[in-house]
Amino acid sequence: MSKHVTYDDAGEVEVTRGTASEEAPRLEGDPGLGCHSGTEMEKAARMAGQSELLDQYARDYPQGPHDKPQSMCPAFGSLRVGLRMKRVATVLSGSACCVYGLTFVSHFYGARRSVGYVPFNSETLVTGKLFEDIRDAVHELADPDRFDAVVVTNLCVPTASGVPLRLLPDEINGVRIVGIDVPGFGIPTHAEAKDVLAGAMLNYARAEAEAGPVARPEAGVSDLPTVALLGEMFPADPVMIDRMLAPMGLAAGPVVPCREWRELYAALDCGAVAAVHPFYTAAIREFEAAGRPVVGSAPVGRDGTAAWLSGIGEAFGISAEKVAEAQNAFLPAIEGALAAKPVRGTITLSGYEGSELLVARLLIESGAEVPYVGTACPKTPWSEADAEWLRAKGVTVKFRASLEDDCAAMEGVKPDLAIGTTPVVQKAKELGIPGLYYTNLISARPLMGPAGAGSLAEVVNAAIAGKERMDRMREFFEGVGHGDTAGIWEGDPNIREDFRALNVKKLEKQERARKAQEMI
User: What range(s) does the Nitrogenase/oxidoreductase component domain occupy (predicted)?
Assistant: First the structure.
């Protein structure tokens, strides 16, 4: 594309809500395969002509030791991106149970937006009628007075069956049509599913900008060269980043995933991209195709801020004096904030949001000992600087970490605090170790610059201080809900050791027979 995006004089457009989805009928003839049936579903998808799509996903999102989701359905990530955008309608195509779960969790997280659903059964799936139904639904939704775009998402079964969203028209009545496949057997985490939709939208917007003038964003565009920010972050972080860029004559651009379609143009119009969340492979591919350099890491902590500002300065060709001016304006404040709110204790950290390495850096500079960091996201060139810094501090960094990796680290280290996903925190509390849920209690806080320094100290120190209370609770409930006492009993359970001994003998006999069969 050209060096700059050209904007037309389109004015503001009133934001409206989408249409209400109808109650979906129960799926008939479900093949019985879901996102946890990875191998069989992938075979079916390849037989249906989806090999090119799956091969691209394998390159963008290489899998780790686990080949199936260990958290929520990955499609929640792309669904969330669409639902947070103004004037964008969202339609799901998948099994009724999957759609129910996704709409439930999206509204649990405050979507306040209707989700469209195109139901199907075995007949419409096999005959191709499902695609026709999707096409009809898209035509019905494509009202330019209400929507800028309609996003259609194939879940596992339609993807495995080869429902060809690529054959949908690119636009209807001036409304953009974006079709994506987000199968659980092809996208490892919901964080990476955000990238699937963000990349698809950037690809569409880049083609529009290359074709001619495009609509100016409602919030306008900066007169200064901008840095596009890649990855969802706390609302105060882009504001703080903008302040840190000001001494270098730069400004913070839009955050991708964006909140309105027109922001995609402004994001592509940047001078460089900050891969704050480094796993947005598809989005980065679009920025690189537009000729935009990418800078990894983020302005987190004293060391991270100094290195990041240097990297931004290099990307824009800014003099060392200007970079030093920006560093001198903020590094002392960051050092002071870190010293004012120290963290004391050993912490294991894990999650699936993609910002785990940044949080670990901030905790270490706050004084905490962090022997282990696990992230469900993959290793990328834009996370390497953070990983090297952490390893130099003696941290074990695990990319594509499984739940088993995170639990094993927590059980082995026995930290003062375990920060992680829900099952990790549950396991920690069963062991009497204080735990904090990463997504709701850690990633929902500012991390950047002086505002981020010390922002974690209060919640982390309070959790560590609760160890004595955890010990009292564990002692009080010792033995309850485990083994023979699991469940609800009106009296003591009737334990039959003779039955147990008989079952043990049966299992041993089956094992001997299995080994004998293997030797044949």
Answer: 73-463
